[in-house]
Structure formats: structure tokens, C-alpha cells
Amino acid sequence: MVKHLRTQSEFEECLCADDNGDVMAIFNGLELRSVFQPIFRANGTVLGFEALVRARSVDGDPVCPAYIFRNLERDDPGFGDQVSLDKLARVIHLRNFSPYAGNHSIFLNVLPSSAIASIQTFSNQNLMLKRLAELGIPRHHVVLEVVEHLHSDTASLSVATTQSINNGFQIAVDDYGVEGSEEKRVRMIRPSLIKLDRSLVQRYVEGEVDTLLRAIALANEVNAEILVEGIENQEEYEAMRALHINYFQGFYLGMPQRLEDFFAANPAKRGPTQKVE
């Protein structure tokens, strides 16, 4: 049995406040903090924010999140720690998001292995449901992004995502077009949202349009909305807008940052009807 954090008290022991008053986590020599990148509707209003991890060692050295959340097999010695870190990240994200939730959605990355482990133990998602109620965040404002890791146990992943949908969450397939985020996974999960990887956008503006257009056709077939990730310039933004994409995200539109800093710079965007400048 993989050992990892299960109870609220175990999670609480890992939490503290940083110098800004934000909730952070310390676990096995790593410090985890939250930043949030805005996601915009086609009309320019803010749909919500993707919660992202910024990590460093307790000595202050930065640690790449891609390394922390790399694809590990269940028998890897670091698997249990990774599942705990994946859960802890969502814990701090939800707490840091709650004062600014309002009408906005929060997008949370979920490792396929973590999703399966959580459902199999019936622990983490039940705890998450309890915390959402305490924090005043509606379940339907929570989008769980299944990241692109390859995973052989497709049946268990399908059960996990179905359970999440039954619990009132939305499901997204993250980074579509990369590794395990492929047509087979989309058809198995039947997500409400498909996030197209930046590589599809780059290929589209360079003239290789078929892959992105097939992704749009697939989304239409499974009745999923489309979010384009990695918009980094005006050309990409205009090209995607011309395709009547639902949602947009990228450095060109908004950098990852603390929510307090985002709303301090964009006070009008607390409401649901303010548009991108």
C-alpha cells in the first residue's frame, strides 16, 4: 500500500503562512506556493484561474514543478511522496483562491495516478468536498485538469473521473496533443473541456492546420468546450479567435501571479462582466 497523506490533520501539519499571508505547504524538504494564471472567455471576461505550483527547497533553491510532477510508475520509490505533493498543491490552491472566488472558476491540475489513488481510498476527494463547503467554493466552479501523463490503467482513470463528475466537478483534458492527452483519453473521459496544447497553436500559425482542426472536431463530437493554452503573441490570439474558440490562456493575456496582485492591478475584474484591456 502506498503511504501518503490522508486525513485533514495530516494535511494541516504541512501548512503555514508565508510572508504575504498566503497559505503554503512544507513537505519532505520542499516548499510549495500558489500562483494563478487568468483564463478568459472569447468576449474578454475572466472565466477563472489555473492554479500553478511554485516550488523551492527549504534552502531556497528553486525546484522545477515539471520534475516534481514527472510521470512516475506506482512502484517508483518517489510515487507516494508525489501523490502527497499533488494533493497538498490542491489544498493550498483552494485556500488561497477562496477569498477571491466570487463567480470565477478554479482549474486544478490532477495527476492520473493521484486521481486513481484518491478514488481507490475514498479519502482525498471526500476531504476535498468537505473543504470546498467550508471555503464557500461551489463544486461546479472547480475544474479538474487531468494532465498529459501516460497511464496504462485506463479503466481506473475512467472510474476516477466519472466519480469526480458525479461529485459535481468539471473535468478537463490538459495539454491535448501531448503524450497521453489524446483522442482515446478524450473519448474515455468525455470531459466538459479540452485544453489544446501550445504546440498545436504554433503548428497552426505556421500553416500545419489539420491537427488543431481535428481537435476542434473531436471536441464538438463529444460536446466539450475548447480552451487554447500558451497564447504568447497577438498573431496567435487573433488566429485562435478566428476559429471561435471558447476560452484563452497564455502569457500574452496574463502571467501567473498571486491573486491579490492580479486584482490589485485589475480591480474591476473582480466582477463577472469586465473585459480584458
Automatic annotation (TrEMBL):
* Keywords per UniProt: Hydrolase
Q: Where is the signal peptide?
A: none
Q: Which residues form the EAL domain?
A: 16-270
Instruction: Name the InterPro entries for this protein.
Output: Cyclic-di-GMP_PDE-like (IPR050706), EAL_dom (IPR001633), EAL_sf (IPR035919)
Q: Which domain of life is it from?
A: Bacteria
**Which EC number(s) does UniProt give?**
3.1.4.52
Q: What class of enzyme is it?
A: hydrolase
Extract the GO molecular function terms from the UniProt entry: cyclic-guanylate-specific phosphodiesterase activity
Q: Does the keyword Hydrolase apply?
A: yes
Keyword Hydrolase applies: yes
The record ties this protein, via PANTHER family, to: CYCLIC DI-GMP PHOSPHODIESTERASE PDEF, SIGNALING PROTEIN
- What name does UniProt use for this protein? Oxygen sensor protein DosP
